[in-house]
Design goal:
Elements: H1 7-15, H2 28-35, E1 44-48, H3 54-61, E2 65-70, H4 73-85, E3 91-94, H5 100-103, E4 108-114, H6 125-134, E5 136-147, H7 161-168, E6 172-179, E7 191-198
Parallel strand pairs: 1-2, 1-4, 2-3, 4-5
Antiparallel strand pairs: 5-7, 6-7
The structure holds S-adenosylmethionine.
C-alpha cells in the first residue's frame, strides 16, 4: 500500500497533475473564517498541509503573517511561485507537520488546516493533535475544515464530530464545530468548520 506518511506519495500526485481536491482557490468557509475578526491583525499563522497554497494566499492577502507548510516539494514550489506572481509576502517551508514544534519553538498564534488531518494516516491522529498543539502558543487557535465524507476509504480519511471532539479534547476546547454552510457544491454537508483553542 502507498504510504501517505511519505512525501513521495503526495509528490507523485502533484507530478501527475492529479490533485483532484484542488479547486484553484481558497475554500469559501476558510475565506470566511479568516475574515471573522477573531484573529488579531498581523497574527502569525501557519497553514499546514498547505498544498498549492490557496488558503495561505488568502491569509496573506488579509495581512496575516503566514508560514505555509507542506512536506511535498512540488507543493512548496507551487506556493513560492504563486506568492511571487501575486506579489504576496509569505514564507513557504518544506517540512513535516509532525516536526513543527521543534522547528518553530516560539509557536504560532493560529494554525489553519484544510484536509491536512484527513490526509494523514488515521492511526496518527493523536500524534497529530499533539503536533499542532505543540506548535501553537498557549491559547492559540486551530481552525479550518475537517472532511466528514461518507466513504470508507481514503485519503482523505473521514472524521466526524464525535471523533474530532475525542481526539482534540486532551489539549483543545472547541468554540465552534459545525457543518459548513458555504462549501463547494460537491462537498456540501460534508465539511466540518471548526475553531479550537489550545488550553494554556
Ligand atoms: C489533500 S492535500 C490538501 C492540500 C491543501 N490543504 C488543499 O486543501 O488544497 C494534503 C496535503 O497535505 C500534505 N501533507 C500530508 N501529510 C503531511 C505531513 N505529515 N507534513 C506536511 N504536509 C503533509 C500533502 O503533501 C498534501 O499537499
Amino acid at each position: 500500500m502507498d504510504d501517505v506518511s511519505q512525501p513521495s506519495y503526495w509528490s507523485a500526485i502533484y507530478q501527475a497533475n492529479d490533485a483532484g481536491w484542488d479547486k484553484g482557490c481558497c475554500a469559501p468557509p476558510i475565506a470566511r473564517l479568516l475574515r471573522e475578526g477573531f484573529l488579531p491583525k498581523g497574527a502569525e499563522l501557519a497553514v499546514v498541509g498547505c498544498g498549492r497554497g490557496h488558503e495561505a494566499f488568502e491569509a496573506a492577502r488579509l495581512g496575516f503573517k503566514v508560514t505555509a507548510i507542506d512536506f511535498a516539494p512540488e507543493a512548496v514550489a507551487a506556493v513560492k511561485a504563486g506568492a511571487e506572481s501575486q506579489r504576496l509576502g509569505l514564507t513557504a517551508v518544506e517540512a513535516d507537520v509532525f516536526n513543527m514544534a521543534s522547528r518553530w519553538p516560539q509557536g504560532f498564534d493560529a494554525i489553519v488546516e484544510h484536509t491536512c488531518l484527513c490526509a494523514i494516516d488515521p492511526s496518527r491522529r493523536t500524534e497529530y493533535m499533539r503536533a499542532v498543539a505543540g506548535a501553537l502558543k498557549p491559547n492559540g487557535l486551530l481552525l479550518g475544515l475537517f472532511y466528514a465524507h461518507n466513504r470508507p476509504d481514503g485519503p482523505p480519511y473521514r472524521i466526524d464530530m464525535d471523533e474530532a471532539k475525542t481526539i482534540f479534547y486532551p489539549k483543545f476546547d472547541f468554540t465552534r464545530l459545525c457543518i459548513a454552510a458555504d462549501s463547494f457544491e460537491n462537498r456540501a454537508g460534508f465539511e466540518l468548520e471548526f475553531i479550537a483553542r489550545r488550553r494554556a
